[in-house]
Write a structure and sequence with these properties.
Helices cover about 35% and strands about 25% of the residues. The protein is an alpha+beta fold and about 400 residues long. α10 (about 315-335) runs antiparallel to α11 (about 340-365). The longest helix has 30 residues, at about 340-365. The protein starts with 7 loop residues before the first helix and ends in a 6-residue tail after the last helix.
Length: about 400
């Protein structure tokens, strides 16, 4: 366990007196990245926070995350920047490649053209661990084995647990993911639809010595991403395929590694070298869910995947969740009352989340071009852009990565 005590000065550095959520009792449902970050931001603004988690312990499956500057600034503002640096690998570049041809289609050189921004690769379990330790150091209770089965809002916000016990609060925050009970309490119950894509996720040893870059191989109806974790000792791999046969949502479905290798058998030598190392892999279906129309009402709010489930085509799920957590606390602390704070939170967050998710959805089409002349023309345009205006190719994403909710 890391010594999270160093985070405390940073966590409390932005607190001010006479805040509208001072001493308010807030229940957060869910102890994932969204819930733990919200616990820190709300506690630091003076609220009395309790986190409810249905699992018996705070754990995460083996998976990698890309933390971009818009998410990193939240962790830095919470005093966790140094710990994040120790737990992550700094990304030097993002490299786009054709699935069969050798060489690069486009190199986004982050060290040269974005030297003051933090792009990093981190194991999801390591990020959850450092957030959980910070929550513990801040004295915020996390109650495990507390499964919430229903939520009510309005004048007496209340959660009901599976064992029949109840808890009251001034505000209930849903950080409980895709099938959020708090989102249901807001009347936002929409079924997702299968996108026609499945994804495999695996972690393998970095026996190939892959450098600190995200490698993205683009092929017809498929793409593969890999990048290093934990000091470069491991490689995170995500592979997406378009197909009619669908799989359930969730990361816990194990699959045969040979199925993954068969789906990408025509990819080139670099991709095959990574795929050859996979001995355990998880498969899940990619379903698109709408961004919630209503993120709040008196006594209730949602954030992270509970508000805006994301597809893994822009690596923004965790980053958006951390943005949400900061803005929620800031709006509640600076507006005249809870209702105005919640309204301001939805106003500031919903359109941004919808825009980011829209771009992510579009990336799937760009990565998976099937018609060879179209794919060739698109890759040629990327090569020319990288050769003639490499800085512009990096800075075209400034609207996303330079967005600083802590500013």
């Amino acid at each position: 366990m890391r010594n999270a005590g160093v985070c405390c000065p940073g966590v409390f550095a932005f607190m001010t007196a006479d805040m509208s959520i001072q001493d308010q009792n807030i229940i957060i449902v869910g102890a994932g990245i969204a819930g733990l970050t919200a616990a820190l931001t709300l506690h630091a603004r003076g609220a009395n926070v309790v986190v409810l988690e249905q699992a018996a312990e705070i754990t995460e499956v083996g998976a990698g995350l890309q933390i971009s500057p818009n998410g990193a600034v939240v962790l830095e503002a919470l005093g966790l920047g140094e710990i994040l640096a120790q737990a992550s690998v700094r990304a030097q570049a993002v490299v786009l490649r054709d699935y069969r041809r050798a060489g690069e289609v486009l190199r986004l050189d982050l060290i040269r053209y974005a030297p003051n921004q933090r792009f990093c690769f981190v194991h999801r379990a390591d990020l959850v661990d450092l957030l959980a330790e910070a929550v513990h150091a801040a004295g915020v209770p996390v109650l495990l084995s507390h499964q919430v089965v229903s939520v009510t809002g309005a004048e007496s916000p209340m959660v009901t647990m599976a064992d029949g016990s109840e808890m009251l609060a001034d505000l209930i925050v849903g950080a409980d993911g895709l099938h959020s009970k708090v989102r249901m309490a807001l009347g936002q119950v929409e079924d997702g639809f299968f996108t026609g894509q499945v994804a495999w996720r695996a972690i393998v040893p970095n026996d190939l010595g892959l450098v600190n870059e995200a490698q993205l191989f683009m092929g017809p109806g498929r793409h593969l991403v890999c990048y290093p974790l934990r000091g470069g000792s491991l490689v995170n791999l995500v592979a997406v395929q378009e197909r009619d046969a669908w799989a359930d949502e969730g990361w816990a479905h194990e699959d045969d590694p040979d199925n993954l290798r068969a789906a990408f058998a025509d990819f080139g030598d670099d991709a095959q070298a990574v795929l050859a190392q996979v001995d355990q892999v998880n498969l899940w279906g990619l379903f698109r869910h709408p961004v919630a129309a209503q993120w709040q009402r008196p006594g209730l709010a949602i954030l992270g995947d509970a508000a805006h489930p994301t597809l893994p085509f822009l690596a923004q799920g965790a980053n958006l969740a951390m943005e949400d957590a900061w803005v929620l606390a800031d709006c509640l602390a600076t507006e005249a009352n809870q209702n105005e704070g919640l309204a301001a939170y939805q106003f500031k967050r919903r359109n941004r989340a919808a825009k980011v998710i829209g771009v992510a959805n579009g990336n799937a089409r760009k990565y998976h071009l099937r018609f060879p002349p179209l794919r060739g023309a698109a890759h040629l345009a990327l090569r020319l852009g990288g050769a003639l205006a490499p800085a512009r190719m990096v800075h075209q994403f400034d609207w996303l990565y330079r967005y600083d909710v802590t500013g």
